[in-house]
Amino acid sequence: MVNYAFVRFDEKTMARVTGKDLPISTKTSREVVKFIKGMNTKKAISYLEQVVELKKPIPYTRFNGNVPHKRGKGFGPGRFPKKTSVHIIALIKSLEKNADAKGLDLDKLEIIHGSVSLGATSGGMRWHYGRRRRKKKLTHVQLVAQEVEKEEKKPAKKKETKKEVSKKETKPIEKSIEVPKDIPKETKEEKLKEEAKEEKLKEEAKEEKLKEETKEEKLKEETKEEKLKEEAKKEEKKLLEKVSSKAGEVEKEKEEARVEDKK
Question: What mean pLDDT do residues 230-240 have?
Fold first, then answer.
């Protein structure tokens, strides 16, 4: 006789299965069963098959010492427990067969309970072969599934804030501004005169700017001409110095030639 951990079992709407002395780790099976709980049986089988293919990991929430993190948003420590996944897939499939025998709808079958416990430790204990014999890991696993009808989620109503309520209550007040129909002619003429004055002032300011710019350009040109004249004078002085130096050398040579001729 099997002792089940789940007490409130309804034979009409529920199905259960047990796996005794499975050759898998108790800690890893606990993590896998915790992750599966609340899933549809078909969804759980498809996910565990991806775990076997090393495509999707199982998160480790309790026994996660020295467990590396896996890729994914908000995914912490996890692994790919291949062996435990294979055995639990077989259990879920037998669970579906038990539910089908009772006439339950497999599309609505959801895992509502899962328990894991240590296997045989004395009488039915198994040993590894070899010189250094050690105990094999044995685990009992129990799963319970129930036919659950999915409720259509209604869109949640947004709570109105104080600002929105105040906006609804307080409507904008339309202010009526009285516009004089007949404007006197004197005011129109004054406005035209003021506009003409402003335009004259703007034109005068533009002319002053142009005059200042022309003055600045003339000063720049004068300074350039003065610089050019100074450079020309410097070059003339250099040429004269060179010519005078050459003439002095020629005269020295002539005097030396005369002195030699006298000798």
Answer: 87
